[in-house]
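Exam revision sheet. Question 4 asks you to relate a sequence to its structure. Input first:
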Amino acid sequence: MRTCLAIMVIISLILLGCVSAPIGGGEASVITTSKNFTMKEDGMDSFRLLEEGSTTTHTILMSKVESNAALLKIDTQSLLMHLGEARSITVGGKTVLVTLNSIDEGYARLTVSLSPQGGNGQPSGGGTQPNLKANGAQCASSSDCQSSHCSNGYCCASGSCCTSDSNCSVGKCNTTIYSCFTATLLSNGNPCSSNSNCQSNHCNNSYCCNTGKCCLSSSNCASGEVCNTTTASCVTSVHVYSAADAEQLANSTANGTLMSRFSSIFNSARQCVGGSALNKQCTPRIAVREEQVSPSTYRVIYSNSFNGTTCCASTDVLVMTVELSTNSTSSQWLDNTFTSNLANTMESGLSADCVTALQYMACRLS
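Answer key, structure tokens:
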């Protein structure tokens, strides 16, 4: 019985030891130059660094993996890294370079490598290796760069390196990682900062358009210009002429003023006390009609009109041709011609004897 109990205790201790041992067994590898990690979201891994004769263990937690970026934490330091980005951080007493190399099917692949500089600023290992250059620094070859990648005369993690958009033959420069990338190009009317932003390769006045001065609304254009919102370009404003403009210009001429004067006299006659209603009815009215001949040319027609059937058969017509684009007019009288003397006679007769003047104004028009 005692023998069986002892055997059970030994087995229990063995099982307890198996459960408490680290899964997978062994310790994290010591980084002497670099180590690659492939991790999915919420994955955890570790590495060790040699510091002053002893090793320190550090953890990597992959918090988030997206299509072109990853959020990770090394010990207590959180790093949001974009694809191709390399970043130097201090872990314990060492400086390491963390590079996000690729993202594929939800897995992020990164490299942790020792910086060529030791924690005290001297070349690691006590050698005489020259200082390597960070991303964005000028370089002659890849051996000049911390990332071991030199392109376009600059260091970066991968691809075409740059420090400004002018270094990129295609796309724009991401000055965080100093690499060229192709952005989604903007259509006409969208705000832009350079030609490379636009589908039309034309950025002007801070907007995209095909050519000339670009705009979103007429407020973006100069005086005398309007924004053609179809092409997102400023164009010279075209005046929209109206019949009211033509009539105003016609009325300002000598003949137009004369017709306005007759109209005023006839209106006064209709208000005259005394005289027959028939004569008041037959006192002519000056009617005005506008006919558009072209976008800027109108004919303004003045004519006498009567409201009865027993009135004197007489009429006068004035046709004014108005060209608003040049602010010019020409006139043509049809039928009988009103004169200023006739207007004076009618006005005098109306003032002297309203009843007699009504008969005169109703019939004496020629």
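Marking note for examiners. Residues 142-180 form one domain.
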